[in-house]
Design brief:
Blueprint (H helix, E strand, L loop, with lengths): L1 H22 L2 E9 L10 E4 L5 E3 L5 E6 L4 E6 L3 E6 L5 E6 L4 H4 L1 E3 L4 E3 L7 E5 H4 L18 E5 L8 E5 L12 E4 L2 E3 L11 E7 L2 H4 L10 E6 L5 E16 L8 H14 L18 H5 L4 E13 L3 E13 L8 E14 L4 E15 L10 H7 L11 H4 L31 H7 L1 E17 L5 E20 L2 E4 L2 E3 L3 E24 L2 E24 L20 E23 L3 E12 L8 E12 L13 E13 L11 E2 L4 E3 L2 E3 L3 E2 L10 E14 L4 E18 L12 E22 L2 E18 L6 E3 L2 E2 L4 E2 L1 E4 L6 E4 L2 E4 L3 H6 L17 E3 L14 E4 L5 E11 L2 E11 L2 E4 L48 E3 L2 E12 L2 H4 L6 E15 L15 E2 L6 E11 L1
Parallel strand pairs: 1-7, 13-16, 50-54
Antiparallel strand pairs: 1-4, 2-3, 2-5, 5-6, 8-9, 10-15, 11-12, 13-14, 15-16, 17-18, 17-55, 18-19, 19-20, 20-21, 21-22, 22-23, 23-26, 24-25, 26-27, 27-28, 28-29, 29-30, 30-31, 31-36, 32-35, 33-34, 36-37, 37-38, 38-39, 39-48, 40-43, 41-42, 43-44, 44-47, 45-46, 48-49, 49-52, 50-51, 52-53, 53-55
Membrane topology: Multi-pass membrane protein
Protein name: Putative TonB-dependent receptor
Keywords: Cell outer membrane, Membrane, Receptor, Signal, Transmembrane, Transmembrane beta strand, Transport
Amino acid sequence: MKKKRALLVSLFLSLAFPFLLLAQDKPVTGKITNKVNGDPLAGATVTVKGGAVSTTTDATGNFSIQAPPGAILLISYTGFGTQEFAVAPGSAYNFTLNELSTSMNEVIVVGYGTQKKRAVTTAISSVKASDLENMPVFRVEQSLQGRVAGVSITASSGQPGAASTIYIRGISSVNGGSQPLYVVDGVVVDGGIEYLNQADIETMDVLKDAASAAIYGARGGAGVVLITTKRGRAGRINVNYTGYAGVQKAWRKIPVLNAEQYATLYNEASVAAGGNIRFPDPAALGKGTDWQAQVFNDNAPMQNHELSISAGSDKSTYFTSFGFLNQEGIVASSNSKFKRFTARFNSNHKITKAITFGNNIGYTYINSTGVGTNDEWGTPLNRAINMDPITPVIETDPAKLSQSPYTMPDIVRDENGNPYGISSIVTSEILNPVAGLKVAQGNGWSHKILGNIYLEIAPIEGLKLRSTIGGDLAFWGDQSFSPVFYLNATNQNLINDYTRNSNRALNWVWENTASYNRTFGKHDATLLIGITAQRFAGETQGGTRTGIPATNIREASLAFPVSQANQYFWGGEWESTLSSLFGRLQYAYDNKYLFSAVMRRDGSSKFGSNNIYGYFPSVSAGWVISEENFWNPKVASFLKLRASYGENGNNNLEAFRFVSTVSGGRNYVFGDQLINGVSPNAIANPDLKWETVVQTNIGLDAVLLNNHLSVTVDVYNKKTTDMLQNVRVPMYVGNNGPVGNVATMENRGIELAVGYNQNIGDFKFSVNLNGSYNKNEITYLGPDKDYLQGLVYGPQGVEYTRHIVGNPYGAFFGYKTNGLFQTPEDVTNYKNKNGDPIQPLAKPGDLRYVDYNGDGLISAEDRVILGNPNPDFTYGFTVNAAYKGFDVILFGQGIAGSQVLQAIRRFDLPSANWSTKALDRWHGEGTSNSIPRVTLDDQNKNWSNSSDIMLQDGDYFRIKTLQIGYSLPQHIINRIGLNKVRVFFTGNNLITFTKYDGFDPEIGGGSFGVDRGIYPQPRALLFGLNVGF
């Protein structure tokens, strides 16, 4: 029996052996290379899917692994994601891997270092030089508009050289200081960055969440923009020239009444006010003067030229550049100009294998002239809108020339000696805009040197010691001259005056850092520690002298001797210091699990003795899900989840607000003696400290569709606490309360960025979209305080905005209306509970104000929040396409969910011109229920109150840039020693889609969202040339 069993077992094994042999693992060998350039990928991980067997490639990209029949190999490599391949045992393969999208593999600046984006655990967005090449952007910060999710940029004016209002994830403070911190090549910049030439910039990295900005501590609360300028590259000398020139014009003008229409409505307004008809035959006046045509230039020239030279060897590299920009404004071109000259020299020298020395230095000279903008007090555009069209530009009527005011000796005249027209209808600051420009003389200038030198030592592998000394030296000033002139009865200068201001500032920083990187097994860690000392100091001085022997600004000088009564001089200085210690730990395990922690300690001279020092921590973590074995790379080749928490500060505030300052002029008579005295302005507060910004962020980065599609999503909550406000104290204290850290504000939002690229033969295509939503809210302003006064404008002190708890910063504020009174009975029937008229001064055609508080009266207590100038949504897109030598760039941006308050018309001057909307005014029962009647006696304050009839939809979408280019074939240009020749046409601000009917819906600066005659963005048509050799 036993022999039979043994025989059966032997027979079974002999029959099963071939099948067992077929089923066992066999080696699979192969080589893994980069699909783009064919380079071997050393250290790539090869794993059998569903098993525990794995190996890595050697230095030549080769591997060998045991795999069963029908196996699927998972091959992953840093920067290439994870990809699947089906294999047959016993075979050899050549695998090629596609890199992840450029956005995940690119190296970005993170503050005192760099990092691959795939390893970043915070919210950072980047704009590269290739995104900006040949773009007609004259201020660098405008390059971020519509290109970075979460960054809201609004032009304060279309005037050449004008700054922009920039908010990163919303307004951060009620005290200003919401503009981001700029760091150029490691040097913190005090103020704007108008001096930078866009062509010199390599990258701009925006640190949006608190964790990424925490390394800048007390100054990072409003976000940080890191700007890195271009460096030289080893190899032959590379010379590049780019230039373009063209013309600009206004993309829109406001339709106002012509002379006939104006005279008709003026007559109606006069009769409504109980007056007489002034113009018996309006038709005889014709079209009259188009004042906008007089101040706008539809062919304003501009040109820009840039030349750069790059060269170097394996020991030293150099980059030198020169730039020149000359732009005339589209409004009053002779008075609105901007010229800028820039020069840069960057170098890097490898003294030994372990020692590197380098520098970055740039010089900028700016000379500019400008006109007033967005102001009802007599700017060129405000005058052009409000000036009556009946008055001529030049008065030639002999009958009028023989009478006053044309007989005034100092009347302003043109080059031919003809006097400019003076209105007998509109007065005050609203006068002949051409004459007003004639007497305006002045300009501003600046010289700026910004740079640093650095020494880096790498004594052992992984350790870098770096010392950097940077400086920001600036000289700037302005001058203005007012000759003797007569413009009208209320605008004349009987004695000339000349004013000149001069300023200088020197800010320096000394930073010393040590970083150590160590990789052991699957662990990778980098530790950074640093110490910083900074000083900001400057001074200003200026003076005015009147009655000098000069007739224009070229002849004017403060050196002319005048009496003591005809001169006035002033001066001042400022200084603050900052000392800091900081550290950062970055850790990664197996390229899957990422962690970062930052701590910074800042000491500032701006704050009280009890709070000189502050601590700003942050932590962040990331999980690269796509590196996990369970992940299916067909879903997404790269997927990372990240989260962060951090604290920043805001010290962009006035220095020494913690002390009790004193004011003079408190004189008192003791006996027969007048004693000079002073008194304190407020109580001191030694506990005063910086404002604190706390922010949490959750983000997701993904690459899909075979690395063609990249997606980034961020959700954040940003809370500002300890905002500075005056604290109320009891009356018996006998002084103003101190400044305290009491107020809070919150911003909540979500951001989305999507990129797609595709190459099909010679056709290359890419599109980048971004959008963001932000909700801003003031949550607390201190005890017994529920609002702050906002923007107050106009001769009558109208409050257009107010900052109220529970509402966004800068919300529009005023009266709600409910149509127009159509009949006298409508007025009398609008009664309170006592039977009294709620608006006793109203007449048919006047606004019906809403009695919001129900007290039966229309008063200031009925004013409410009307709208919001802060957009809910900002968005932008860029499309790039190229086929052989042709290329096209299309860029657009827009906002949604905002309003604009239009206050262009001078409400205190009822005879000012009207827009053509007044043609649809109320002029009888049922003729209109939205546009009030015209009258020279506005007792109902239809237009002098801030109300919802002034509010308009501020949403817009703008085609910012359309560029079409052609590059000559290489085989042609190589024959003449060139490596690049490209010609291009650019249209800037070509089309704007908006419901707003003013000059421009984009209104930034101090009048954020309030249009009082904004200088519009110019539409430009430019032709350019790019040559490289």
